[in-house]
Amino acid sequence: MNNADKKNNSPLTTKGYQLRANVTKVQHVSIIGGGIASACLAYGLTKLGIKVTLYCKDSTLAQGASSNAIGAVYPLLYKQADSISLFYQQAFWRAKALYSEIAEQGYSFAHQWCGLLEVSYKETLINKQKAFAHFNSWSKDLIHSVDAKQASELANIAIPYGGLFMPNAGWIAPKELVHSIFKAAEATKYLTIVTDTQVSKIQQIADAETSVTTKESNSNRAWRLYTNQGEYSASTLVICAGADAIEIEQLKTLPITATRGQITSMNSNKKISKLATVICHKGYLTPAHNGIHCIGATFQINDTNLNTNKADDHYNLAMLAKCLPELSANINWQEQDISSSKARLRCMSQDHLPLVGAMPNISEHKKAYAHLAKDKNWKYSQVAPSINNLYMLIGLGARGLCSAPLAADILVAELTNTPYPVDNDMLFSLSPNRFIIRDIIKQKIS
Ligand SMILES: Cc1cc2nc3c(=O)[nH]c(=O)nc-3n(C[C@H](O)[C@H](O)[C@H](O)COP(=O)(O)OP(=O)(O)OC[C@H]3O[C@@H](n4cnc5c(N)ncnc54)[C@H](O)[C@@H]3O)c2cc1C
């Protein structure tokens, strides 16, 4: 099925639950956000002349996970072209194109496409590197194998291991990037940014006013946003709230988790200042920017404490020492070389893919697709039922800088009723209802 078929809603597929409902082009979109997800979405919508109002709980934008000083931009790739890798491959090129477009408009943000080296510092990674060479799934400009000598030349410092090199990857300053994308969106005059406004509850307006809901009125039902600054209404609402999305009642059934991460900024020294590429081991080490390298990061599931602590800085240093002992000894970073630390939350999905699209109507899914529990190949033509006018772009995990632009393009296509930039299979891989369908098939819900 191609995009035109899908937009006409003619279910040529036997898996109706993979189909998204047709949306009449929206006129105005409200977004809860302030990070890279909302920046890309706001930019994409306002560029098409759609009015956007953004609600952000903080006094300035990019204070959540997107507030790091430095982040690596690179795709998540496996040895074979599975659906995860295919998404991230496409997303990576899209991210580079979008960020270049923003820079070309004169909005600046620190970045360097200096390449990224995943070092094969242990047996399993050496085998992984061999498997990449064997399957040869990816073009050389995306990823290729290098030996220790090549790795050292690329990194401009001695690296005792070979690895997988991504020549087009690099690092970016996420906070500056997000501000620049929002500035570009504001230049369209279609964006209104409302800061210091925390949305504590959302409710469909008809729910608040009457318990009677007809099918027609349902599709026009707006949302009421309850905030610390009063109430607002939203005809179409998109949640781009990062890990805070977990707190939103309507999304609580979705399998997303908050994973804390702390990164540590280190003062450069003569032994490491010449580093010329991003190094990934179990964590990462970035080239110097303004005399600072970033190392990290920790992964603490279901820990939501945003205070930094010394133990995590030590963990980041220890991780570097464990994976790259010679390099670490040579750099010889001490406690006093720590310039600063930051802890933020990643919004993780179970399958490393974002959740992009309408909030599924779970009870209607259970009714409509019940027979999947007996036969997962049962043919359905019914389009996936969703909660009207409620969308999300969340679950960007540890790769939001790579995935946000393409994910935003998909949602822009959905909200403007224009062709999707990905095929139907990928669309379903990203659809928030994929977990509901999986659970019905596995008989986890009925
Ligand atoms: C330590 C660490 C290191 C990372 N390193 C990398 C990396 O190297 N490369 C990479 O690609 N990714 C990295 N990531 C992941 C990346 O930062 C995230 O995927 C990305 O920033 C998520 O963006 P977001 O817009 O979804 O969420 P966020 O940036 O968290 O933005 C959420 C926004 O929503 C607002 N908000 C939330 N709830 C409400 C509410 N109720 N009302 C109003 N406003 C609300 C917040 O104020 C915030 O502005 C890292 C993450 C961490 C924590």
What spatial form do the alpha-carbon principal axes imply? globular
N- to C-terminal distance: 29 Å
What fraction strand? 15-25%
How can the largest sheet be summarized?
9 strands, mixed
Examine the coordinates and then state which fold CATH places here, giving the name of the CATH topology of the largest domain. FAD/NAD(P)-binding domain
CATH fourth-tier homologous superfamily of the largest domain = FAD/NAD(P)-binding domain
Give the overall pLDDT as a whole number.
93
Give the % helix.
Answer: 25-40%
**β-strand number:** 21
Backbone CA Rg: 23 Å
Ligands in the model, by name, code or SMILES, are: flavin-adenine dinucleotide
CATH class bucket of the largest domain = Alpha Beta
CATH architecture level-2 label of the largest domain: 3-Layer(bba) Sandwich
- Could you say how many structural domains there are in total? 2
Provide the low-confidence segments as ranges: 1-6, 210-218
Count of DSSP H/I helices: 14
- The assigned structural class equals alpha+beta
Q: Any descriptors?
A:
single chain, 446 residues, alpha+beta, FAD/NAD(P)-binding domain, D-Amino Acid Oxidase, Chain A, domain 2, 2 domains, 9-stranded mixed beta sheet, 6-stranded mixed beta sheet, globular, disordered N terminus, binds flavin-adenine dinucleotide
